[in-house]
Specification:
Length: 424
């Protein structure tokens, strides 16, 4: 079993620019070479801006390359809660923002002719209990009435037909606009597109300092200092952002396994519609299949940071969860297991705006594949001088209470939610 992401191990990665090309000036410096930064760089370069991307490690090697490959619409929280919290108008705008994010990914894939196995497959949110199903039923009624008529509630038999005959679930909610893709292929292509348009990307080049110098920013890095009119912070908990941001993002570990390729017969049975699937437990799981006949299965298996030890433990936990749904996969080998961080905000919404003159996009809260690409594109347009509507722009962003202690209590939080899943 390899302890590396399947997505990154199954591609030929694109390389950034040579350090000998490192400039001293740019219109925009983008800090972070994940989907947000790469998408912004592509849009900026196509608009004629000189743009430099500083990536502390390798292109798209953190959250952008360590996720489940879902490109889902629908918000992280349920729609009814959003309406209660923000009012119907804002809730509808936020829901549509995620719809638009999926559209943006598809538009880039189509425009740039990217071979990344992108397909509109739909997302199925499946209910473990009758209580969970009642919640989905109420939410689907509200969603269908106010914002997304392309959703449906499925009964137990319909869900069983979707999930290889498994009778584990009581029913589910189907979101037809959701999609999936090979995020490793997409990330490499997005970087190549940005560089073809004129952006410069420097790997293994962390930002070391950021300061105002008159009417420009001075961005210090391991390769030198760049002066820029604008700076976009598109990093997260994988690298140290300024303290103001770190106090507002909780890194939550998420872990994923990829099975060995299956026989055609078995593969055709387990997920005949090849949808994205998400479960309703607090410690939920998410899964999908791949073009080379694997099952990708993830979840919050271990409330600790990714390491060789925690990845191996998480692989065992995920295998047990996988076989709870698919007993027939008990003897199927696991080829890959990996972990990474989800950057969670208190309100589970993405955040973008300006802080001390610096533009930022962070806290994507487990819905980052599509939203990172969309926010990056919108911020690229904004920094190019276009008027764009960003529903999360400068929204109130509350710090995490007792942030310095919060990460130490994550195992306790995990135990609490596991108990809720088991007994409530």
């Amino acid at each position: 079993m390899k302890l590396v992401p399947y997505w990154l191990d199954s591609i030929s990665p694109v390389s950034g620019n040579a350090l000998s090309e490192f400039p001293t000036r740019a219109d925009v410096v983008v800090v972070g070479g994940g989907f947000t930064g790469l998408s912004a760089a592509r849009t900026l370069a196509k608009a004629g801006k000189t743009v430099v991307v500083l990536e502390a490690d390798q292109i798209a090697c953190h959250a952008s390359g360590r996720n489940g490959g879902h490109v889902n619409n629908g918000t992280a929280g349920n729609f009814r809660t959003m309406v209660e919290k923000y009012g119907l108008e804002q809730a509808v705008a936020l829901y549509r923002f995620f719809d638009d994010a999926v559209d943006t990914v598809e538009q880039i894939v189509t425009t740039e002719n990217i071979d990344c196995d992108f397909r509109r497959c739909g997302k199925l949110k499946v209910a473990w209990t009758e209580k969970h199903l009642a919640g989905l039923r109420a939410d689907q009624d509200a969603v269908k009435q106010h914002v997304d008529p392309e959703t449906d509630l499925l009964d137990r038999n319909a869900v069983a037909a979707e999930i290889g005959g498994s009778t584990t679930f009581e029913g589910g909610m189907l979101y037809r606009k959701s999609a999936q893709m090979h995020v490793g292929k997409f990330g490499s292509a997005l970087a190549a597109n940005a560089m073809s348009a004129g952006a410069k990307i420097f790997e293994n080049t962390p930002m070391t300092a950021l300061r105002r110098a008159g009417n420009v920013f001075e961005v210090s890095s391991s390769a030198g200092v760049i002066q820029a009119q604008n700076v976009l912070l598109a990093t997260g908990t994988s690298r140290k952002a300024p303290n103001w941001f770190r106090r507002r993002i909780m890194p939550v570990g998420s872990f994923i396994v990829a099975t060995a390729p299956m026989s055609e017969d078995l593969f055709s049975r387990i997920l005949p519609g090849r949808r994205n699937v998400v479960t309703t437990r607090n410690i939920h799981n998410y899964f999908r299949t791949t073009a080379d006949r694997r099952l990708i299965f993830g979840g919050r298996a271990n409330f600790s940071q990714s390491s060789e030890k925690s990845d191996i433990q998480s692989g065992q936990i995920l295998h047990a969860a996988l076989t709870e749904i698919y007993p027939e996969l008990d003897s199927t080998e696991i080829d890959y297991c990996w972990g990474g961080n989800v950057d969670m905000s208190v309100d589970r919404l993405p955040h973008a705006g300006e802080w001390n003159g610096v533009t930022y996009a962070m806290g994507l809260s487990g819905h980052g594949v599509q939203m990172s690409v969309h926010l990056g594109h919108l911020l690229g347009q904004k920094l190019s001088g276009e008027q764009v509507d960003i529903p999360v722009w400068n929204r109130p962003w509350q710090p995490i209470p007792a942030y310095g202690l919060a990460t130490h209590f994550m195992p306790v939080v995990g135990a609490y939610y596991r108990a809720k899943d088991k007994y409530l």
